[in-house]
Amino acid sequence: MIKLYTHPLSGNAHRAELTLRALNVPHDLIVVDLANKAQKQPEFLALNPFGQVPVLDDNGTVIWDSVAIMTYLGLTYGDGTLLPRDPALFAQVTAWLAKTAGPIAYGLGAARRANIFRTGQDLEPLIRTGREFLDTIESLLSTREWLVGDHLTLADIGCCSYVASAPEGNVDLAPYPHVQAWLSRIEAQSWFTPLAPVPVGLRAAST
Ligand SMILES: N[C@@H](CCC(=O)N[C@@H](CS)C(=O)NCC(=O)O)C(=O)O
Fold this sequence. Notes:
This protein is α+β, with helices and mostly antiparallel strands. Helix content is 47%, strand content 9%. Pfam families: GST_C, GST_N_2.
């Protein structure tokens, strides 16, 4: 059975889980105790030298990093719908996946992390980066339903986790009606499951 090492509050792990679900690939979720630094122990570092979730173990084939996991799953278990095989469309999807490690991580993701875990980081520049990303996709999504092509792809799955949880980083989604409609289209998929809301009692913990 495929194993996904994950954490319920991780948007990076969430997009990997959504990919497994969208592809209907049976899997077990293994929650890594990030608060107690299980990810920095030798057993986990043997899976991912950077000591982070998500990690996928496909019967001995170990892949770390959400983008790598999504791409691996799309190529291995997909039929070309979620991850198109046409080189230009494939490249467009990977361009969006690259954003998950760029402005999404440094903007929306970082603002959420700083806000819910009270890291002391200045939220304003993170929020500004997050809003710039939202401004861009709001404009694009005013003329199209999906980020790439005419149907849902890994581009949408990759970007949705930290966009949906933007309010947890004090980024209001009200000014972004097309982004909200896009999120609703993703959330309407039968395989969708939301990123867990942050329990109040955990907010002092740190990942
Ligand atoms: N670029 C990586 C980022 C992974 C990442 O930041 N994981 C966080 C959880 S969202 C983590 O494991 N943090 C624990 C740590 O860094 O010690 C990916 O997309 O997989």
